[in-house]
Amino acid sequence: MAAIRNIVILTGAGISAESGIDTFRGAGGLWENHRVEDVATPEAFERDPDLVLRFYDMRRAAIQTREPNAAHTALARLDREWRGNLLIVTQNVDDLHERGGARRVLHMHGEHLNAWCTACDARSRWTGPLIDRPPCPVCGAPALRPDIVWFGEMPYRMEEIYDALRAADLFVSIGTSGAVYPAAGFVRNARDLGAATLELNLERSQGSGWFDASRLGPATELVPAWVDELLG
Ligand code: NAD
After folding, report:
1. Looking at the predicted structure, is the pLDDT value of residue 128 above 90?
2. For a 10 Å CB count at each end of the chain, is N or C smaller?
3. pTM higher than 0.90, yes or no?
């Protein structure tokens, strides 16, 4: 452990599952009863904006009724107490890492609680619905969409993520299926450059074989135990 200074943690929907937020790949490959292609692509938004806006309005309202769990608060503790570099790269669009107290968080797939104006490009904090086409707080245009990276769009802040992976001594993946790229490839970037790699997940993920070690179980048990171990 003494050699570890720089840590990158990748989190996915599994870390929020025990807070009551559905993961992506439930039974039948549906997400909240919708096919992903019908709600999470730019084409879907163009074809049926009301369906997509309503879907995200519901998700945005729902996450505000959920609370961070023991896995979020354990990572927040690690963030507070770890003296070296640490970056929590999350694929999640909920705000449970932040509400759990973590600060070094990067949302590579955007955030439910942001709206993005397609007229002026501004991002504004947004907690209410978008279905009625409210004006952008910056330019006034009725052109707000969820600030979510849909399939086929470029994830945010990739340079920063790859810089952190290059410097990482330890890469830990928590609650992610390893099915969505580019995040699913981060383990290989990190290990190719010498980082130790660890997976914490309910079951083996698709990329499980790339990790030095896998611990299987619910995030609310595995993550606090791992953080205790790391902080001694
Ligand atoms: P995923 O749904 O594809 O995979 C979730 C993984 O978590 C699975 O491997 C599952 O076995 C594991 N898991 C489930 N419950 C767990 C638990 N209690 N403890 C530990 N692991 C558990 O999710 P993904 O890999 O994050 O990728 C899907 C995409 O879905 C992301 O792009 C993300 O933006 C989006 N998404 C986000 C949220 C959210 O913000 N909370 C929710 C659903 C989907």
Report:
1. yes
2. C
3. yes
